[in-house]
Design brief:
395 residues; alpha+beta; outer membrane lipoprotein receptor (LolB), chain A; 15-stranded mixed sheet; 7 helices; 28% helix
């Protein structure tokens, strides 16, 4: 789809929705859902190439108004992200600041020395992803562990923080309003078109999902149906777990809209101070095709690559560069090692020329387990919100 077609499609649903849809009618709810879904997807899928650098802050604000204005109180924790996309090729990283990285390493070292401690809460975890159309590699540099997924597997962690998904749509935008709308149109989820609501100065078209309108999204029809608001609430009390506000967006070539500043407020209906997260884009290019040599990551010596859900692994005995073209080789080598181990062999193929012993295998598996547990503990402490459970029970 070219940019001109994208712009025409973004204009057509606006007229249709304004002229023929009102809140409160089941048939018109379905019509509105279809229009909003198509408008949202048209803009979201109009970015085949992305080169985006951003800052991701965790901070506090005395009031909700201060949070939206970027007036923080006390210490802020910051990570820097880089999101590089060329069709199915993706290189993504969200890295801790040097101060947070040192503190995380100190806590992990103390946890390793304290054998009685099984859970270590850390302030930050680096996340690095490399993807092709058939594989995804997730690398934890602090744990020297990498997890490899084929296209038939779904990474339960996935990429959770981008300008389009400021940690509110689940891994890889799995719980996007487009998918929720499709579920509702197929009768697998409740949905209601709420009409127009003024949100942060924008006349947004609002739709809610699930029982008691638990999940709520707002879209700006004047900016390509960009999602400008999202929230999730506790049904018994009616209080929101969080609210997400897209406060700035850039119009790109072809009438496409890209979020530039997003502020999330946790427990916004409670008394302050408020726990706040801000995503701010610092560099953006959505027109230039990235060169292929930019899609690579460096695996450090000692990393173990695990194929999740299978008895397949591979020890990296010498630091090496990995590209998307190398991912099938990693799985083949990992399968050879796993098959050899299951057959009772003491050794197996390996990158770097050295054979893994059982001792190092167990150490690697333990490191992988610590990475998973550490991520769970980190996100539980960090988010303090309950995500919406998709209709099929996945998260």
């Amino acid at each position: 789809m070219n940019h001109r077609t994208s712009r025409l499609l973004s204009i057509f649903p606006v007229a249709l929705l304004v002229c023929s849809v009102a809140a409160g009618d089941d048939a018109k709810d379905r019509q509105a859902l279809g229009v909003l879904r198509q408008g949202y997807l048209t803009n979201r899928e109009a970015f085949p190439v992305i080169d985006c650098e951003f800052e991701w802050r965790e901070c506090k604000a005395a009031t909700r108004q201060d949070a939206l204005a970027g007036k923080w109180t006390g210490e802020t924790k910051m990570q820097r992200g880089h999101w590089l996309v060329d069709g199915p090729l993706v290189r993504y990283e969200l890295l801790c600041s040097p101060e947070l990285a040192r503190e995380t390493e100190r806590l992990m070292e103390e946890g390793a020395k304290n054998k009685a401690s099984t859970n270590v809460a850390v302030p930050c975890v680096d996340r690095v992803f490399l993807r092709s159309d058939a594989y995804s590699l997730r690398y934890g540099r602090m744990n020297l562990c990498a997890n490899l997924f084929s296209k038939t597997d779904r990474d339960p962690e996935g990429i959770r923080v981008t300008p389009f998904n400021p940690d509110c749509l689940g891994p890889d935008e799995y719980s996007s309003p487009a998918r929720f709308s499709e579920e509702a149109l197929n009768g697998r989820m409740k949905a209601k078109f709420e009409g127009t609501e003024k949100i942060n100065g924008v006349e947004a078209l609002v739709v809610s999902f699930a029982d008691e309108s638990r999940q709520k999204f707002g879209f700006d029809p004047k900016r390509g149906y960009l999602m400008v608001y999202a929230s999730d609430k506790d049904v018994p009390s009616g209080k929101r777990y969080y609210e997400v506000n897209v406060l700035e967006a850039r119009e790109c070539s072809g009438g496409r809209w890209f979020p530039m500043r997003v502020v999330s407020v946790l427990a916004p209906d409670s008394a302050g101070p408020y726990h706040v997260r801000e995503l701010r884009v610092t560099k953006l290019d959505v027109d230039t095709k990235p060169s292929g040599d930019r899609f690579r990551i460096e695996l450090a010596e000692g990393v173990q690559v695990n194929v999740i859900g299978r008895m397949e692994w591979l020890n990296i005995s010498a630091a090496r560069t990995v590209t998307p073209q190398d991912l099938p080789e990693l799985q083949t080598r990992a399968k050879e090692v796993g098959d050899g181990y299951l057959a009772g062999q003491a050794t197996g193929p390996q990158i770097g020329g050295k054979n893994p012993s059982r001792r190092y295998l167990l150490l690697g598996l333990a490191a992988g387990l610590m990475l998973v547990l550490g991520s769970i503990i980190f996100y539980t402490r960090w988010r303090k919100v309950r995500p919406l459970t998709p209709p099929n029970g996945e998260s």
